[in-house]
Amino acid sequence: MKKMKRNILMLMAGILAVAITGGEVKAQSGTVKLNLYYNYGLPTGSFKSDVISNGSPRGGGADILYNIDPTWAAGLSVAFQDFYQKYPRAVYNTGKNEQISAVLSNSVQSTPILAKVVFNPLGRQRSVVQPYVSAGVGFSMISDKQYLGQFESSDASVAFASQIGAGVQVPFGKLSNSGLLLGANYNLVPYSKNDLSNLNSIDFRVGVYLPLR
């Protein structure tokens, strides 16, 4: 685990170094922007079928991106998503020849911290709508809790995380450097705790982007 964390941090540092180095070529034209957004998350795969099937309206995040040139940007992304579901009372096996009638609740909070790269194919044009694609890699801090009646099991750990996304940016005005952000991401989070195999999800986001300098 420590080796994986070290490799992830080295990769994140490398991506950020590329952003800074690329910006030195056009230091006068380089800008930094802030993305702030609300997330709605949907579990997928075994995360949805085995743990939580409900969507989560409790999410959000922020990106700080350095514009290397009009089409490429790189930086850091931090987000949060809170998944929760309570199942009706049922009978569960708790051991050999042991059963319990109880309400089952699953709670998973994920905080991904990613090095992120964004490509805007129309970045050199003053288009009303600016499509983008993005990719990120890093780690996610996971809090996983399960309540079976009065009994609780929990785990807190760090897992590898990656992300791909796409969306559009809509400037508030023709010459504006701020605007509306709409997009969707697929989040890949391998996670093998408490009989889970992954915490993969799709999130839909709406927010704003603002220039910092």
TrEMBL record:
Q: Name one Pfam family in it.
A: OMP_b-brl
Entry keyword annotation includes Hydrolase: no
Q: Which residues form the Outer membrane protein beta-barrel domain?
A: 16-207
What keywords does the record list, in alphabetical order? Signal
Where are the bilayer-spanning segments?
none
Q: What is this protein called?
A: Outer membrane protein beta-barrel domain-containing protein
